[in-house]
Specification:
The chain has 150 residues and is α/β, with parallel strands linked by helices. Helices cover 43% and strands 15% of the residues. The chain has a three-stranded parallel beta sheet with strand order 3-5-7, sandwiched between helices. A two-stranded parallel ribbon has the order 1-2. The longest helix is centred in the C-terminal third of the chain and has 15 residues. It starts with a strand and ends with a helix. The mean pLDDT is 87.
Length: 150
Amino acid sequence: MSTIYVNDNFGQWRSDMNKLLDYCVRPEAPGKSFIDQIQPGKNDYFVLKPMHSGFYQTPLEVLRRYLDASTLVLCGLTTNSCIVCTAHDAKMREFRLLVPPDCSAARTPKEHRQAIERIRTMTDAKVTPSRSLRLGEIVRDARSNKRDGI
């Protein structure tokens, strides 16, 4: 199982995963302790995106086909921008979409709540806290759906 990390380029078109990661784990970086816990592993992928959606002008769709992925667990920043845009694009691509609301954030709690509600109603995503997600079940369901032609 691989994780795909999709990150903004912040106008740094020559950026790469290691350079971005080094920036995020520098001693004075806000959130360093969180980033230390979710660093990419050797089997993970990194996609650099120019705009809000993880799909917009990125190789994510090609990578998705290569990995034969049908389920997307969507986490990150910001809920009312990047997460909403990526969720809508994932819906158009017929992903099974899971969005744990405790794994994303917006500038304000109100913006976050509004975005989560929009994702819930507009994309048919399963919106459930991360503690309720069981990776083994998600993988098993994804494999079962492929056999059923979904």
